[in-house]
Amino acid sequence: MDELVRKFESVLVQGDTKLAQGDYEGAYQDYLDALLILATAVVYRDTGMLVSPDKLPGFLGAYPQLKEAVERYPLLEVSDETVKAFREDLEKIRGLIEES
């Protein structure tokens, strides 16, 4: 679990760096990776299982905000507004891995 948390934080910082440089595509991809790492960490904490990204939503019923983000963000077009909103959402849901 600690390794997943560290990976989440690392990928988030990478995305923040790309966002600051105006690389919205790169930041968006890093934020998607961070989101999936966060969801994986939450599922692992709750079940002890590592689950593939396509199966994550089925395990996130107790976390509606996280489930909605996992289902929504991979489908959106990249823009500066979308990337900034995505980053704000990640900040709101990051507490789920700090609850352990």
Order of helices and strands: HHHH
Oligomer: single chain
* CATH superfamily caption: Nucleotidyltransferases  domain 2
CATH architecture: Up-down Bundle
Question: Percent range for helical residues?
Answer: 55-70%
User: What is the CATH topology assignment?
Assistant: Four Helix Bundle (Hemerythrin (Met), subunit A)
Overall mean pLDDT stands at 94
Query: Roughly how many Å apart are the termini?
Result: 9 Å
Question: Which band does the percent of strand residues land in?
Answer: under 5%
Q: Which class in CATH terms?
A: Mainly Alpha
Considering the chains and any ligands shown, give keywords for the structure.
4 helices, Four Helix Bundle (Hemerythrin (Met), subunit A), mainly alpha, 100 residues, 66% helix, globular
Architecture overview:
By secondary structure, the protein is mainly alpha-helical. It has one domain: Nucleotidyltransferases  domain 2 (Four Helix Bundle (Hemerythrin (Met), subunit A), Up-down Bundle). Helix content is 66%, strand content 0%. It has four helices and no strands. It has helices at 2-20, 24-47, 64-72, 80-93. Helix 2 packs across helix 3 (64-72) and helix 2 (24-47) runs parallel beside helix 4 (80-93). It is globular, with a radius of gyration of 13 Å.
